[in-house]
Amino acid sequence: MTAPLRLAVWKFASCDGCQLALLESGDLLLELAEAVEIAHFAEASSSMREGPWDLSLVEGSITTAEDIARIRHIRENSRLLVAIGACATAGGIQALRNVADAGAFAAAVYPHPEILDALETSTPVSDHVAVDLELQGCPISSAQLLEVITALLSGRKPQLPVEPVCFE
Ligand code: SF4
């Protein structure tokens, strides 16, 4: 019997909607239960099993120095890394600050903006580490995500309506 695929699902700056798309897969996800070991899934559980992971799904954009260190650690310990959703693939709605004065935004919203420890920009995961595949959407299609996981389990290239940016 082959070892289950070690799956980790990560959250950066995001609304959790793409993780919910996976949770909402319901019965289809249950069908994969024996073939997949969920080592980490931020939306479903706070527990985490250390890497290496076979597949890391990354939701959210990179917005702090800590994020940069964390995404590098995830990349170093993941055989495949898939960025899921507009936040992870393009910086998300929070990237609006990239073309404005992020400090002015913070001052308008927070009574003490000086305590914020955020970067001036919100950037996609691919700006910081190599990404094997990007799934577009806001949120992503749960059917497309399950196709990616199923394809990995059977050792074939996923069949997606949009050609993946990079998938070996
Ligand atoms: Fe939420 Fe959209 Fe970002 Fe997914 S891409 S985490 S649904 S804002």
UniProtKB/TrEMBL annotation:
Keyword match Cell cycle: no
Cofactor(s) needed for function: [3Fe-4S] cluster
GO MF term set: 3 iron, 4 sulfur cluster binding; metal ion binding; oxidoreductase activity
Residue stretches making up the NADH:ubiquinone oxidoreductase-like 20kDa subunit domain: 15-152
Cell membrane in keyword set: yes
Keywords annotated in UniProt: 3Fe-4S, Cell membrane, Iron, Iron-sulfur, Membrane, Metal-binding, Oxidoreductase
Protein name as catalogued: Coenzyme F420-reducing hydrogenase, gamma subunit
Organism, scientific name: Tropicimonas sediminicola
